[in-house]
Write a structure and sequence with these properties.
single chain, alpha+beta, Alpha-Beta Plaits, four-stranded antiparallel β-sheet, 11 helices, elongated
Length: 283
């Protein structure tokens, strides 16, 4: 009896060590922890909840439209352009090469606090250095000798005026402080007729898509966390069992005492009558 018990313990220990030393066991467990997504079932779940998805998408579009039309302040943009090469009629190849190298230097001019101060004085406004710097953007398109001086403002006329003033002040500052030829005004800013932000149509479309994406995300999370067993595939996946047949679920009818079968009531009456003694005609 003792030898049989010892042999059993040895077999169990060897089986346990083999399982722990088998690398395939860990990989099998890791594969079991992976969540499988049935894309077809998820697609049908989207179709099932399509009314909620569309409702959320429309709600997102309405919110975006309200923000674009009534909440967000329209911003207008005006751009004035400066040609970097000097104003001489005869331009040599060396002038063009110098103009390309000076593009970065000229952009630094617009970051000078003195330039911002001169612009503020000409405008007759009490703008701070931070506010003017935040409204201004200077760029140099690739392979060109043109500086784009762009100003954004809630007032379209103010955006044009500030852009033209910056271009003029920068020309004078470059000629005076950098001992260079005064650049030319390539193009004055055009009065903007429509805001750059918000773009109402684009914002409404984005709100619609974000609303639909939010609803589909919620539906997907509910689909992944739903662990109820509803189909044959769920039974096979969870329990590894084969389904032999299915019994349709039927809702039963509530049967009250008043709807009891007639024969039941008759038996009650009859049994009650049996308790009374029978009478003969003679009685």
């Amino acid at each position: 009896m003792a030898s049989q018990t010892t042999a059993t313990n040895v077999r169990s220990a060897s089986s346990g060590s083999g399982a722990s030393g088998n690398p395939n066991a860990n990989s099998t467990q890791a594969r079991a922890d992976v969540i499988e997504i049935d894309l077809v079932a998820l697609f049908y779940r989207f179709l099932e909840k399509i009314h909620w998805i569309l409702l959320t998408a429309l709600l997102g579009a309405v919110i975006a439209g309200v923000l674009a039309y009534f909440v967000i302040t329209p911003i207008y943009e005006a751009t004035s352009k400066i040609y970097i090469v000097g104003s001489d009629t005869a331009i040599s190849l060396s002038d063009l090469q110098i103009g390309s190298n000076l593009a970065a230097d000229y952009q630094e001019v617009f970051k000078n606090w003195h330039v911002h101060e001169l612009v503020d004085k000409r405008l007759g406004q009490d703008y701070s250095y931070t506010k003017l710097a935040g409204m201004l953007t200077v760029s140099n398109p690739a392979n060109t000798h043109v500086l784009y001086v762009t100003v954004k403002s809630p007032d379209p006329e103010e955006a044009k005026l500030i852009a033209d003033t910056y271009a003029q002040v920068a020309r004078e500052f470059i000629a005076a402080k950098m001992d260079m030829r005064e650049p030319n005004i390539f193009e004055e800013a055009k009065l903007p007729d429509r805001p750059v932000t918000p773009r109402k149509t684009r914002d409404i479309v984005i709100g619609f898509l974000l609303g639909a994406l939010l609803a589909m995300t919620i539906v997907t999370m509910n689909f992944l966390t739903d662990d109820r067993i509803c189909t044959r595939e769920d039974i096979a996946k969870v329990g590894g069992l084969t389904t032999l047949g299915m019994i349709p679920l039927q809702k039963g009818k509530d049967v009250s005492d008043r709807n009891a079968p007639v024969y039941g009531r008759r038996r009650k009456k009859q049994s009650a009558g049996d308790d009374q003694p029978s009478r003969t005609k003679g009685e």
